[in-house]
């Protein structure tokens, strides 16, 4: 490091600015241990020196050392600045240390820094993480000159805590609004499931940027309004806005949700033509889109092109093979993933067990289920049990499925009983079917699957009086038979 060489060769020319510069360089390169050694050797320190070290400890999330050095700074006789307090507050927003926020707030008031926009905004964010809307407003009131940043912090705090009415009022009385204000409002309404109102404010925005477009598009996609997400994406492109990687990822996820392969391919093609870099999230979304839209070969090709695959990308391709009933392929990918040192998580194991169920790989499914805690350090959840019930049900081992349900460490849900009931329909098992239907009925009355599958089983056994009785019950309860469907997508 040239700067360090000059620093070492000129000991007499070192002043406090020189020391601060070299320490700052080490902090920015995350060489905190070396920065700390130099800091401890400094003959004289100013507030910039302390702030630099505090920032360094924040960057590596060493909160205990950060607090310790802050106390030393006070003992050293230096008065913290707004920047000092903001670093401290941001670091203490970590759940383990939130209890100290009120103490810091008291010190802020004693130091006369509570009127600062910079400190106030940091405090509001901390109280938001603690779920304290009253404290957020109290901090806001303490700010002497409130600018648009402080108003945005108040708005964000209310919306993130679900205080939509207070957030709406704050937005309406803001003396000044910028694109961040509008985007915060739209995002807050989206997160609180008020998409129609979010769209109203989005349409009213005097100025939009790629972030505001992305917030609205991803909001639609996350709430399964895939058509609206894609229509807005098309409008965005038509108006000349350039999507970023998050926008494209949301649009591709909407294509996956709506099963529109043609639209997804068009987005992929335009992405290639634009030369825009593709990060790991976008790459994984492409894999997921192709798999869910029915082109597993394209999904695998997209996966193979990812230079550095992470857990998310592995999960996408394993899940894709599982959904297509290609159990052996899914397990091969799972082994490849483990071989390169990527550790599976609970999502991976759901895909693996689902692949075994759909592929009729009973022995493999049992093996991976037994290995979950012992080898993969993943505690089986209700989804994993549902996969195993489905696995046993598909191969007709209904007694094993019932035994597994009874041994579960938690109460079975509708999905569990639905999987068992579906297996009974597949294998015409009336006795177990009635048991599953009764348990399912306790959780969700008048579920159409209960009537439909029992009607099927009883019809196959020639029990037509019971079939008629069930159909009459369906009419009385308003339950309707679930209809299957298919679609053809034209590329033109």
SSE layout and pairing:
Layout: H1 2-9, H2 16-28, H3 32-41, H4 47-59, H5 63-75, H6 82-92, H7 101-111, H8 117-129, H9 133-142, H10 148-160, H11 164-173, H12 179-191, H13 195-204, H14 210-222, H15 226-238, H16 245-258, H17 261-274, H18 280-292, H19 296-304, H20 311-323, H21 327-339, H22 346-359, H23 362-376, H24 382-394, H25 398-407, H26 414-427, H27 430-443, H28 448-460, H29 464-477
Helix and strand composition category: mainly alpha
* pLDDT averaged over residues: 84
- Rounded Rg: 29 Å
The succession of helices and strands, N to C, reads HHHHHHHHHHHHHHHHHHHHHHHHHHHHH
* Overall geometric form: globular
The helix fraction, in percent, is over 70%
Secondary structure tally, helices: 29
Distance between the termini: 60 Å
Strand content: under 5%
Residue windows where pLDDT falls under 50 for at least 5 positions: 445-451, 453-485
Total count of strands: 0
In this structure, how is the largest beta sheet organized?
none
Summarize the structure in words.
By secondary structure, the protein is mostly helical. Helix content is about 75%, strand content about 0%. It has 29 helices and no strands. The longest helix is centred in the last third of the chain and has 15 residues.
Keywords:
492 residues; mainly alpha
What's a quick, concise take on this entry?
By secondary structure, the protein is mainly α. It has 29 helices and no strands.
